[in-house]
Amino acid sequence: MASLLHALLLCFAFGFGLLITSVRAAIPTTLEGPFDPFTAPFDTNLRGNAVDLPDSDPRVRRRVKGFEPEQISVSLSSHYDSVWISWITGEYQIGFDINPLDPARVSSIVHYGQLRYPMSYEAEGYSLVYSQLYPFEGLQNYTSGIIHHVRLTGLKPSTRYYYRCGDPSIPAMSQIYNFKTMPMSGPRSYPKRIAIVGDLGLTYNTSTTISHLISSKPDLVLLVGDVTYANLYLTNGTGSDCYSCSFSDTPIHETYQPRWDYWGRFMQKLVSKIPIMVIEGNHEIEDQAGNQSFVAYSSRFAFPSEESGSSSTFYYSFNAGGIHFIMLGAYIAYDRAANQYKWLEQDLANVDRSVTPWLVATWHPPWYSSYKAHYREAECMRVEMEELLYSYGVDIVFNGHVHAYERSNRVFNYTLDPCGPVYITVGDGGNREKMATEHVDEPGNCPEPSTTPDPYMGGFCATNFTSGPAAGKFCWDRQPDYSAFRESSFGHGILEMKNETWALWTWYRNQDTGKEEGDQIYIVRQPHICLGQQESPEQGHSDI
């Protein structure tokens, strides 16, 4: 009886926030930082497991007939009262003589409502077809099925809606799916769990990542670039872990566009129910005839660009409860004269931290990474944008690109700063190119500075450090102070906002079968001391 009474008292105390001290003691917080850099040992058994799912895998094969919808997904608009439903009808074509489908053949209709039967509302959208064309002999061209995007409006916050999509006149409608809208924006209103993943591809490791992610029961998924890795293939379907190593003599960097369709089919079980928000990575460039690029990326996903004042699919923003997310493009102009920079200035100026206390930014290549792969590749973007993001008090930054996991201490301009963002690299989704395992602070791993720029990202900005422990050098000779934790493993992360100043970040590794945390920390905002973090009227209370 005494033990039962003790348990009841503990539950009662926790419900009123009286056990916060013990909770915080068990999980570190950024208030205790900066932390001494730590590197988790690398498990060599993980190195060779990134094998693509073949086109014979039932999870990627077409299972619908005629113009029935497939590759169904949900994405958010800029606010809770609107979402996008996307899908594809008809079959793609690949070969030397292709005939694109006519989008006008099939309507873009969504029936939806808060009940399965009857569905009270109908919305109509638009459709398109894209092609991937190569003006070289022997290369096959591709044209997609009909891609549909329909925006649903007038939705209630934190509400489950049921929907069917397709063309009822054929008839060719999907089965019934459902999604839940985001909470209304406010300092105590948040989605419960947000999954963050990058550099997914479509391998057996990807399958494990998504299976674990689904078991985390997220309300929203962020994919921080590098979606399908279709550009690791020739147009005839021959693939490689390293395109430049295997196919160095091709007249253009080819892609095998059906991998996009495979990926859409594989992901439907998740993204037909849970909204997914995507930003472009370098593997989405996909050059083709007419100097076109990023065509598959820009065509297949719906983006709240117009709703957030952006003129581009490469950068946009949206709210999810009390979080304002900014999705930035590293492979489009980002300098101070560019449209993206001007848009970012305006978007940041419009953020009301009393309504959306949390400010989270994402883009693909990391600014702060200590891995050899892509080291300081995005330095020009950092030079142009870091001060602006810092001045508005961005709390967390998520990146991919480097195929490993790394979490930083709070940092600004390579200097530890209690008001700088926490940078988290999650490029460990499981893609075919395998993991990054080498660090620049290890002997012989520091690259020649002139080799670091990415030609798609602008000029050369990465030079030797002028101050700090690495002054006069291009790399640190030990794990950098800004690097709090790093590990080469595949996995995914979950972000949970507990209130307007406390958020729990957890990273899960694929090799762990249960719910063991690979890394976990409370990220704590300090608006009372940090520039740009406007204090909301209710801040100062804690109820985690």
UniProtKB/TrEMBL annotation:
Domain Calcineurin-like phosphoesterase, residue spans: 193-405
Residues of the Purple acid phosphatase C-terminal domain: 474-513
Reactions it catalyzes: a phosphate monoester + H2O = an alcohol + phosphate
EC number of the protein: 3.1.3.2
Superkingdom of origin organism: Eukaryota
Signal peptide: 1-25
Keywords: Glycoprotein, Hydrolase, Iron, Metal-binding, Secreted, Signal, Zinc
Residues annotated as domain Purple acid phosphatase N-terminal: 69-181
Subcellular location field: Secreted
UniProt cross-references to InterPro entries, sorted A to Z: Calcineurin-like_PHP, Metallo-depent_PP-like, MPP_PAP, PAPs-like, PAPs_C, PAPs_N, Purple_acid_Pase-like_N
Quaternary data: Homodimer.
Name of the protein in question: Purple acid phosphatase
Organism from which the protein derives: Cannabis sativa (Hemp)
Classification of source organism: Eukaryota, Viridiplantae, Streptophyta, Embryophyta, Tracheophyta
